[in-house]
Amino acid sequence: GKQIFVLGHLEYDRLTLDKEYKRDLAKGLNPQIPVNYYEDDDPKNKPELTWRSTSNCLYSNWLNYYVYQATPYELE
Predict the structure, then answer these.
(1) Under a CB-based contact definition with an 8 Å cutoff, are residues 17 and 11 in contact?
(2) What's the whole-model pTM score?
(3) Which of 13, 38, 49, 68 sits at 20 to 30 Å (Cα–Cα) from 57?
């Protein structure tokens, strides 16, 4: 069978990683700024939402193949 490995969190909305980053800063953990997440890599800027279309495409294709095409019509 085929295997699919997804690295990252395509289900995240625009502010999820921002909240996690700021939470860790508040705890004094000194996390690295997420690369290419904020405009100009500046946490003062609103996060960019560049992964939405990729996320929708991945999940749509996965559902289409594994649910609608690979699942038998008559379940036994």
Answers:
(1) no
(2) 0.67
(3) 38
Collect all residues with Cβ–Cβ distance below 8 Å to 25 and sequence separation of at least 6: 31
CA 51 from centre of chain: 7
For the chain, the average pLDDT equals: 86
What are the domain boundaries of the chain?
A: 1-60
- Tokens for 34? 């997420």
pLDDT cut 90: percent of the chain above it = 42
Q: In sequence order, what DSSP letters do the residues of 19-74 get, joined into one string?
A: HHHHHHHHTT--PPPPTTTBGGG-TTSPBP--SHHHHHHHHHHHIIIIIIISS-SS
Q: Which of 5, 10, 12, 7 is nearest to 59 (CA)?
A: 10
More reliable by pLDDT, 72 or 1:
72
Cβ-proximal residues to 54 (8 Å cutoff; 6+ apart), any chain: 10
